[in-house]
Amino acid sequence: KAGVTQTPRYLIKTRGQQVTLSCSPISGHRSVSWYQQTPGQGLQFLFEYFSETQRNKGNFPGRFSGRQFSNSRSEMNVSTLELGDSALYLCASSLGDFLNEQFFGPGTRLTVL
Amino acid sequence: AQRVTQPEKLLSVFKGAPVELKCNYSYSGSPELFWYVQYSRQRLQLLLRHISRESIKGFTADLNKGETSFHLKKPFAQEEDSAMYYCALRDQGAQKLVFGQGTRLTINP
Q1: Which residues pair with B88 in a beta bridge?
Q2: pLDDT tens, B57-66?
Q3: What tens digit of pLDDT does each residue of B25-69 get?
Q4: Is residue A98 over pLDDT 70?
Q5: Of A88, A99, A107, B44, which sits most exposed with the smallest number of CB within 10 A?
Q6: What's the gap between Cα B91 and its chain centre?
Q7: How far apart are CA B60 and CA B62, in angstroms?
Q8: Is A50 on the interface with B (CB under 8 A)?
């Protein structure tokens, strides 16, 4: 099986812009979770989608949003970018049952200038 | 609030020596605990989970609810164990993982 893929792998934006990141889960996986990784805060949960519905949400401002399509692919969007949004954004997919393992993608490195 | 604490940011041991990476958690219910590992230039991957009670690559971890700890142990470290290790907690009934800050383990030859 192909692993979780994320595009693009690297992205440079300027403050005030918006960005969309994409995640393709492992075939058959219906749950996609997003995490932000920074040196200061570590890995923090953003949100989780299951069957096109947001099932869990972390403590991030409304500028961070996401969606999931019928094929389980997911996108996350960050509007009005701030310097502090510079981070590695990871997505993870799983079958969706609460005991299932999450498989992580390689991440998208976002730099905000 | 849920919290995972890994007190050591860096840990360096010699090959063949025992390794223990500490993890303490704060959670009011019955958490599910994990250890994830990230080798150089590789993606984050699951090492082991407490419900499996397995030994993976020689590593074991025991959940101690009294001490709210889930320390990762290996009796004889190998150079290929050098990596970043994250302890994580999952709320029962949710896919959300709460991660510790990670410990960078270096095994010296």
Answers
A1: B34, B99
A2: 999 998 998 9
A3: 998 877 889 999 999 999 999 999 888 778 889 999 989 989 999
A4: no
A5: A99
A6: 17
A7: 7
A8: yes
Which residue in the block uniquely carries the two structure tokens 């849920």? Answer: B2
80-109 in A: which are within 8 Å (CB) of B? 90, 92, 94, 96, 98-99, 101-107
Cβ-based contacts of A48 with chain B (< 8 Å): 94-96
Structure tokens at A59: 């403590």
Looking at chain A, which residue has its C-alpha nearest residue B50?
A99
Instruction: Let me know: does B74 contact B58? Beta carbons within 8 Å.
Output: yes
d(CA A100, CA B4): 20
Q: What is the pLDDT of residues A23-71, one digit of tens each?
A: 999 999 999 999 999 998 999 999 999 999 999 999 999 999 999 999 9
In this structure, what token pair is assigned to residue A110?
């976002």
Contact map slice: B 16-45 vs A, CB within 8 A:
32, 43-45
Chain B residues with CB inside 8 Å of A4's CB?
43
Mean pLDDT score of chain A, rounded to an integer?
A: 94
- The answer to whether the Cβ–Cβ distance between B101 and A42 falls below 8 Å is yes
